[in-house]
Amino acid sequence: MTRPINADVPASKPASTPGTTRPSPPKPAAPTRRKRQRKPVPAALKAIAGLFVLAVVFIVAAVLGGGGDGSDNSSPEGPAPVSETPSSSSEAPAAQTPEELGYPAFATANTTRVGGADAASNAAGVALAVYPASKPSQQPTAVTLADADDWRTALAASVLVAAPVGAPVLVSSAEGASDATDEALAALDPQGGRASGGAQVIALGAAEAPGDARTQRVGSTGAAGAAAIAALREKLTGAPPRHIVIAPSGNPAFAMPAASWAARSGDPVLFSERDRLPKPTANVLRAHPKTPVYVLGPSSAISSDAVREIGKLGGQVHRVGGEDPVANAIEFARYANRDFGWDINDPGHGFVVSRSEEPLDAAAAAPLSAAGTWGPLLLSDNADTLPVALRGYLLDVKSGYTTDPTRAFYNHVWVIGDQEAISVNEQAEIDELAALAKIGGEG
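Request: output the structure for the sequence above.
Response:
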């Protein structure tokens, strides 16, 4: 392997913060969110919240009428929010600051934010970024509608993002879908096809699906839902899994990185409780006794007893994990074992950064790991401060050049969520760490 050009740049020493383990509830439910203190929202950020709806409207106009601007505002080169027209022609327009134009809150040279206030908005923004849908070749065959009350099946459904199905994840619920989901689904306009078994929509749990859509429903939830999705993946692809990922059902922050890998690889995600293996998961493992299994998370999330139980059912078992969610995601991004793992230990890659408290965002962002600058999901556990371990990792894989920057390898980072999830200052620090740096020489 060629030695990275920035190999001599020192990396910050990661700090370990003990993770918390929550018991798995009898009925899968969304994890309780820690209430975050709301910060004053700049005027531009208020406008940015409407970009997703505007993007959808533009795309729908382009699809239906052939006119209008079909740009998706979550792309690196998307248009900035437009300032209001002066009330009088005699008034000179005020100079706009970068923040008023949507920068750096929306995008910087090395980062792009999908800045929804919730998972449904983020999922819609990501889906339209990956599938602009201004012409048939940019439309997905099908779309998955995840149940907002079941993060486990949402994460497991990320495997359907992978080829050949290619179904991005949107978010719905038994009470109906949000406007962002409805408008994104209308713009994406999936037609169904062989890759999806003819289905236009794959609905999970109680997620409401359009009544006129050809729908494949996975009604089971939690570990049983994940097993059902694994079976559906095998049916649609006609091939057994090359690997199986087991994620902790009682600690979503440790499970989140599995979504990006499932989207990139097509490896199904199953779930284990801390000390025992659920029956649906065990049944899938028995059906594939020679398939290598990778357990995601430390022993505090999935115990050694559970790992031994997995080992008794067949294939080789490997654990990949860090002691806290931030370190766990980094370890998974670095990990490689033959044809399994991201193996990202050098410059020139894409990354996705999300908050560790938002497991649905991992599923929403999964398509970004299977398109564009394909990259792993990394986590921040703080809205205002970049974790030391994450800073050290991004510094370690920072891109550099000696003479010609146009021949260098570049990093790009997608930031998921609004400024209450990841602040503008934190995004700016991520941008600095992702920026190309000159190594050696003058200036």
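Confidence is low (pLDDT under 50) at residues 1-101.
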